[in-house]
């Protein structure tokens, strides 16, 4: 990274390389590009590991809004600080740091002040990739399948020296996305809870709720009973099995992480009175599940709400909690050259929970 440090000192843009998708197919090619220079409040992070999130697959295809190609996805980033701006106080060179789904927001609106920056009411949330950066002349942000990233220190997270750095990256999306509603619904010991969709997000939800002492069930279209057992899940139910259709009024809390078309009303029915269903899985617009409002009215004052990642302060809280309690995702480390293969597995729901790219393979 010596070259980048020199460039930083001259306040010039930072050269970076990554793997980009040049169209809506899951095809990647090496791509050299420039990141904006390191401002007074910015940090430059050398990326060591980046997770593959299911959203990356949708975003490349333009299924979560317009896609800007060439696109470098990746919003689960763990790395090391290699340069800091003159006003940076949170980090010094050599520290470990994480980056999640956002890199900036206005900081002044009501939601930003409450540290729910993902919902910036001025519409100025800059997501980590494929997002217009109003703070840098409207450039389109590029994500973590790359050598480095420059961002405001506020949106970079502190990681201790003893962290399992190769496993930490997926906490930045899969971790916070599930941690946030589990906290919001105040899941606690002894409750009967369930995870719909036992993938990257689902297995993190299960880990958090097992740690809290809840009795966890899980649903998936594939038979993941063995994996479920290893995660401490009490009951695994395959979707469309006979048992699946007999479950009603069973759970205090269900978190749905399913990123495809599914019957959301089936899960609503499984809640007890006053039970809560949190929706965090994000299917494409076409596959958007449809809620049956009538069934809701006759359905015991159950609550359904959605949740999108989590704000900056809660993300740091989640990281501290996860690291302290040794709650890490199950990961398979891959070289970046295996991206396309990994995407196929993720799309089929066959990933061993989370692929994490070892960025050493980039050089
Ligand atoms: Zn994600
Ligand atoms: Zn704002």
CATH superfamily of the largest domain: Medium-chain alcohol dehydrogenases, catalytic domain
Number of strands: 19
Distance between the first and last residues' Cα: 12 Å
Helix content: 10-25%
In CATH terms, what is the architecture of the largest domain?
Answer: Alpha-Beta Complex
Number of domains: 2
* Global mean pLDDT: 94
Contiguous runs where pLDDT drops below 50 for at least 5 residues: none
Pick out its properties.
single chain, 363 residues, alpha/beta, Quinone Oxidoreductase, Chain A, domain 1, Rossmann fold, 2 domains, 7-stranded mixed beta sheet, 6-stranded parallel beta sheet, 11 helices, globular, binds zinc ion
Question: How would you characterize the overall build of this protein?
Answer:
The chain has 363 residues and is an alpha/beta fold. It folds into two domains: 204 residues, Quinone Oxidoreductase, Chain A, domain 1; 132 residues, NAD(P)-binding Rossmann-like Domain (Rossmann fold). The protein is built from eleven helices and 19 strands. The strands form five sheets. Strands 3, 4, 5, 10, 11, 18 and 19 form a seven-stranded mixed beta sheet that branches. Strands 14-13-12-15-16-17 form a six-stranded parallel beta sheet, sandwiched between helices. Strand 18, helix 11 and strand 19 form a beta-alpha-beta unit. It is globular and about 65 Å long. The mean pLDDT is 94. Bound molecules: zinc ion (ZN) (2 copies). The site of one zinc ion (ZN) has 4 residues, from loops.
């Amino acid at each position: 990274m010596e070259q980048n440090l020199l460039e930083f000192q001259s306040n010039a843009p930072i050269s970076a390389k990554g793997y980009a998708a040049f169209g809506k197919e899951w095809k990647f090619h090496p791509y050299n590009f420039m990141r904006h220079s390191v401002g007074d409040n910015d940090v430059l992070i050398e990326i060591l590991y980046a997770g593959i999130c299911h959203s990356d697959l949708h975003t490349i295809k333009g299924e979560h809004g317009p896609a800007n190609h060439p696109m470098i996805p990746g919003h689960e980033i763990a790395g090391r600080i290699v340069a800091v701006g003159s006003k940076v106080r949170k980090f010094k060179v050599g520290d470990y740091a994480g980056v999640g789904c956002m890199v900036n927001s206005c900081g002044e609106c009501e939601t930003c002040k409450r540290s729910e920056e993902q919902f910036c009411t001025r519409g100025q949330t800059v997501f980590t990739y494929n997002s217009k950066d109003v703070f840098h002349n409207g450039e389109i942000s590029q994500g973590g399948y790359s050598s480095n990233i420059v961002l405001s220190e506020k949106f970079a997270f502190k990681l201790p020296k003893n962290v399992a750095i190769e496993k930490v990256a997926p906490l930045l999306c899969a971790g916070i996305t599930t941690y946030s509603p589990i906290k919001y619904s105040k899941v606690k010991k002894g409750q009967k809870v369930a995870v719909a969709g036992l993938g990257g997000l689902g297995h993190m939800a299960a880990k958090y709720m097992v740690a809290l002492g809840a009795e966890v069930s899980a649903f998936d279209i594939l038979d993941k009973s063995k994996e479920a057992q290893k995660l401490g899940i009490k009951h695994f139910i395959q979707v469309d099995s006979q048992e699946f259709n007999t479950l009603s009024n069973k759970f205090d809390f269900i978190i749905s992480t399913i990123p495809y078309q599914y019957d959301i009303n089936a899960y609503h029915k499984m809640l007890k009175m006053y039970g809560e269903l949190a929706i965090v899985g994000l299917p494409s617009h076409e596959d958007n599940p449809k809620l049956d409002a009538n069934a809701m009215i006759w359905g015991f004052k159950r609550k359904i709400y959605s949740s999108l990642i989590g704000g900056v302060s809660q993300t740091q809280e989640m990281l501290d909690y996860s690291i302290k309690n040794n709650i890490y995702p199950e990961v398979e480390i891959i070289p970046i050259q295996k991206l396309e293969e990994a995407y196929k597995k993720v799309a089929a729901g066959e990933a061993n929970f989370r692929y994490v790219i070892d960025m050493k393979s980039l050089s």
